[in-house]
Amino acid sequence: MFIFLVMALVDLNSEFKNIVIDDNNINFGLTINSVGYKTILQNEKLDGINIEKFKFHYKKGKISNEYKLIYITSGSGFVCFENSTEIEISKGKILLINPNQKYTYYHLNDNDWNEYFMRFETDLAFSILMKKFFPAENIIIDVGFNEELVKLFQRAIDVVRNGLKSSQVYLSGMLFHILGLIISESKNKKLEKKELQYIEQVKVIMNENIYNEISMQDIAGKINISYSLFRKNFKKHTGETPAKYFYDLKLEKSRQLLLESAYSIKEISFMLQFSSNEHFSIAFKKMYGLSPRNLRLKELKK
What pLDDT is recorded for position 49? Predict the structure, then answer.
């Protein structure tokens, strides 16, 4: 059972639906229908058939009365809207599908594909705002790699997966944050140096491998740079070595799991690849001033 729980938590293809609308339907003009993420590995096949044969075609496919927001963090492919030609899409791009818009998109299987997505509906007032901030008919936005954006999507997934109270209100606020960040980053990216972009790419890779055992040399290889230069530039921009930054991310995630999930301390330590429960407890107390057990007990008393 324990192994099943761990695998379910880190499943690479998940969509969380049926989000409860509570708090007297307070949702700021938004209703979040689902959040999720999808990973397709290089050359992966579905049921023995190449994925490229699964292209959804707008002339044959269904349309929806909801928005779909997609953030691509790995891979490349193409999107085609009705009455337009195919447009290349790749990592760092945002795809915003409008209600009742016909489209198709697919990935190229020469690289891994990873995307986060959120489906939502709006009332008339918020729909007018969406058209004001995103006036183009076919919306593809280049925001580059952004750790904060990935964390927001991951946090939204955790909110639904853990069944937190007031989830619609919480998710609506998070969507406001995501949309604002997309608008800001699409403008600021033009001024951003290439070096800063690959630092953000590294942070995204770290967040997406929070439950995995991955070396800093492996990460350097993913962005095609020598480890020594990678380590030097990362520390220059963050003030920390890559290994320390990744370790602190794991501790941050462990705190969230302690406060919001029913996993035991031993399970959390195992899931996040700490070398031992004792090592985890010592490192956690050093960072937060309380042991994992005492932090959870303090929260339960509130």
Answer: 36
- DSSP letter string over 43-86? T-EETTEEGGGG---TTTS---SSEEEEEEEE-EEEEEETTS--
**Band of pLDDT at residue 150, cut at 50, 70 and 90:** very high
- Backbone φ and ψ for 301, nearest 5 degrees, come out as -75, -15
Q: Which CATH number does the domain housing residue 260 bear? A: 1.10.10.60
- Domain co-membership, 118 together with 219: no
pLDDT higher at 101 or 11: 101
For the four alpha carbons of 201, 168, 38 and 176, in that order, the dihedral sign comes to negative
Give the predicted TM-score (pTM) of the model: 0.75
Whether 221 and 187 share a structural domain? no
pLDDT at 17: 58
Domain count, the chain: 2
On whether both 123 and 200 belong to a single domain, the answer is no
Query: Of 3-12, 35-44, 146-155, 180-189, which gets the smallest average pLDDT?
Result: 3-12
Average pLDDT of the residues in 147-166: 87
Domain of residue 144: give its range.
Answer: 11-191
67-74/93-97 β-pairing: antiparallel
Q: Of 147, 176, 191, which closes a domain?
A: 191
Q: Choose one of 191, 219, 244: the last residue of a domain.
A: 191
Closest CA to 215 of 233, 240, 187, 241: 241
Residue 63 corresponds to which tokens in the numbers above? 């349309």
Give yes or no: residues 143 and 207 share one domain. no
CA 175 to chain centre: 13
Mean pLDDT for all residues in the chain: 83
Helix (H/G/I), strand (E/B), else coil: 245: helix
